[in-house]
Amino acid sequence: MRIDDLPIRDELRGQSPYGAPQLDVSVQLNTNENPYSLPEPLVARIAERVAEAARHLNRYPDRDAVELRTELAAYLTRTTGFERSREQVWAANGSNEILQQLLQTFGGTGRSALGFEPSYSMHALISRGTGTSWISGPRNDDFTVDLDAALAAIAEHRPNVLFICSPNNPTGTAVAADTVLALYEAAQAARPSLVIVDEAYVEFSHRASLLPLLEGRPNLVVSRTMSKAFGAAGLRLGYLAADAAVVDAVQLVRLPYHLSAVTQATALACLEFTDTLLGYVQQLKAERDRVVDALRELGFEVTDSDANFIQFGRFADSHAAWQAILDRGVLVRDNGVPGWLRVTAGTPAENDAFLDAVRTVRMSPTPTLAGARPARAASQEL
Ligand SMILES: *Cc1c(COP(=O)(O)O)cnc(C)c1O
């Protein structure tokens, strides 16, 4: 029996699931995880808070995650200087669930979502999964948002949901606040629509958070995650900041008790260690900048990065280059952006291993670097 023989929804036929290769390689720099495991005192604190939660597991968890949302709001207020209260914050199992709840509320059958690609492939996948038709918007050759083309696409398609990923995955490109404002205004002029700014990597950015743009813009949402900066991808905790009415709206689609008591307790323990965890972020930013400089010195083109990963190229055949780097024991990501690969900033030792690997690829006479051959068509997930 094949999937397509099942009576599945038409828009799912022929689609591929999200899937970065999970290969057993010693240096894994392909999924933008934080390379630092949680510090032992935090592990002990998680055990303590989870034990306390375990005493009440016969009961459903706090459906509204009040304590957690209060602490997330305090984190946002403290790190951006823009005051948020718990009524303006909502949490879910990863920012992917946040995005799904938003699409279930503001997208759906007969509605559309637009994003500027290449970008995070889950924006399109979650849109399709909620019956929302997906519109692929353009970018400039340097991967910044092509504002004129973007405004034209918004006017033409009048999407119900607009995605702005800043810093953008897989390119690392941040979007300037005035560009976001222009896109928001254009989207509202076309029809009242939800604008989602995905700030999964904002803690790694040279630029400030776009959070203050929420002031006076009830149709704007900023989504965040503890998967990257907090080094807690395994926790599955994402959140949004928006007008309190948006938080009320997603209550219409969220599953009751969606966020387990264990998840809430663990996330609260992590938030107690915010300063320690943000210290790792500083180290990773310095490592990212070191790898950018080293790659440029080796003669690679590197897209300016505001994230914990780097897009580099150009390759005549990026898949062959991906394989050549893998053959040297380092797993990076081929996102299917013709000519480019993406590497996550790891520990200093991992980054050195990566730089050694690309140095030999650069020196090798194999035809992997940009040259006469056309690049492979896009196919893989971001
Ligand atoms: C990694 C990533 C996320 C995080 O998803 P979680 O579900 O919170 O782990 C969200 N958006 C983008 C652009 C990402 O790259």
User: What summary fits the major beta sheet?
Assistant: 7 strands, mixed
Taking the alpha carbons of the first and last residues, their distance comes to 28 Å
**Assembly category:** single chain
How helix-rich are the residues, as a percent range? 25-40%
Strand order of the largest sheet: 2-8-7-6-5-3-4
Beta fraction of the residues?
5-15%
List the ions, cofactors and other small molecules found in this model. pyridoxal-5'-phosphate
- Secondary structure tally: strands: 12
**Structural class given helices, strands, pairing?**
alpha/beta
CATH class of the largest domain: Alpha Beta
State the order of secondary-structure elements, H for helix, E for strand.
Answer: EHHEHEHEHEHEEEHHHEEHEEH
CATH-defined architecture of the largest domain: 3-Layer(aba) Sandwich
**Count of helical stretches:** 11
How would you name the CATH homologous superfamily of the largest domain?
A: Type I PLP-dependent aspartate aminotransferase-like (Major domain)
Q: Mean pLDDT, nearest integer?
A: 93
Protein described:
The structure is a single chain. Helix 2 runs parallel beside helix 8, helix 9 (about 275-295) packs parallel to helix 11 (about 350-365) and helix 10 (about 320-325) packs across helix 11 (about 350-365). By secondary structure, the protein is of the alpha/beta class. The chain is globular. It is built from eleven helices and twelve strands. About 40% of the residues lie in helices and about 15% in strands. The protein has two domains: about 5-30 and about 275-370, Alpha-Beta Complex (Aspartate Aminotransferase, domain 1), CATH 3.90.1150.10; about 40-270, Aspartate Aminotransferase, domain 2. The longest helix is centred in the C-terminal third of the chain and has 24 residues, at about 275-295. The structure holds pyridoxal-5'-phosphate. Pyridoxal-5'-phosphate binds near residues 32, 120 and 228. The site of pyridoxal-5'-phosphate has 14 residues, from helix 3.
